[in-house]
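Support request, please re-run this one:
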Amino acid sequence: MAVKLKRFKRNPILAPRGDDWEALAVFNCGAIRLGDKIHILYRAVGDYVKYASSLGHAILDTSLNLLERSSHPVLTPNLKLWELSIEDPRITMIDGEIYVTYVTTITPAPPWPIRRKLGLPKPQQAYSRCAVASTQDFKEFRRLGSITPYDAEERNLVLFPERFGGRYAALHRPINWVGAGYPTNRPGIWFSWLDSIPGVMYDHRLLMKPEQNWEYKKIGAGPPPIKTDKGWLLIYHGVDEDEVYRAGAALLDLREPWKVVARLPEPILEPEEDYEKVGDVPNVVFPEGAVLVEDELIVFYGAADKYCCAASINISDLLDEMLR
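Re-run finished. Output below.
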C-alpha cells in the first residue's frame, strides 16, 4: 500500500476573508519553523479581473493553532520592477538569513475556470520569472531581484538551505526547456548553482522529468529540500493529462544533490476532500512549505487555488518507504 500524508483535521488552516486583498482566495503557502512558531507566507487574491496576487503572513504554533494573521499584505507588487503579481512563495534559511523566493509576472490573469465563469478572454501573457527577497521579521522585505533565466518561463524556484563548498544551489522549473536540444519533452525539475544571492544561475542539469501517469504533463519542486541523514527529501507536485495536481516525494544525494537516490512511484497526496476538489481551480493539491515538529513532517499546501491546508507524516516512515 502506498504511503500517504494524513490531512490536518481542521483543514483548511486559512480561508479567504474580508472584502479586499484576500477576499477571494488564499493559497500556495510557504512555511518555516522558528523556535516554537511556524511562519506562513501565502498567496492572496482580492479580485478576479486583474487577478493580481500579494503575500500575506500568518503565525501558527506547532499544533497549527493560528496565533496571528496580518491585516494587510506584507509583500505587494512593485510596478517599477515589472511586477503586477507576486505568487507562490517558498521560504528558506541559509546561514541565518531568511530568503523568500516567489514568482513575478507583469501580465497576471485569472485561471481558465474563472475566465470561463466570468466570460473573460485569455490575454496575451508575458513569461513569468522567479525573484528572491530577504527578511528578518516578515514585516520588512529587501528585494534582491529576479534570478531565473529571462526566457525560460520559470516557476517553482527553491533554494537549498545550505551551501555546497561555498556555492548556493537551487531547483527550478523552466517551462520552455523541453523538446529538441533538451533532455526532456515535458517540463521537469532542474538543478543549478548560483554564484551569489542575488546572482547568476549556472551549470543547469535536469534532475527529474515526468515519469508516471499522475505527473505526465509536468512536475515542479514544492517546499525547499529538507536535509535528512538519508538524503535531501524533496516534496514535489505533478500534473496529469486532466490537469489534476498531486504531490510526490523523491530523495536526492546529500553530497551530489543533482542525483536522485529514490523516488516514490505513487503520489503521497491527491485531491480527495471537497476543499481540494472544488475551488477556483478544481482538483489541486500544491505543496509549497514543510516543517519538522519532532519526527512529524508537516507539509503545507494550496487546495483548489482557494485555501491553505496542511498534512503530515512521520518522516522516518516516509524515508523507509522510499528506500525500501
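The chain has one domain: 8-323. The radius of gyration is 18 Å.
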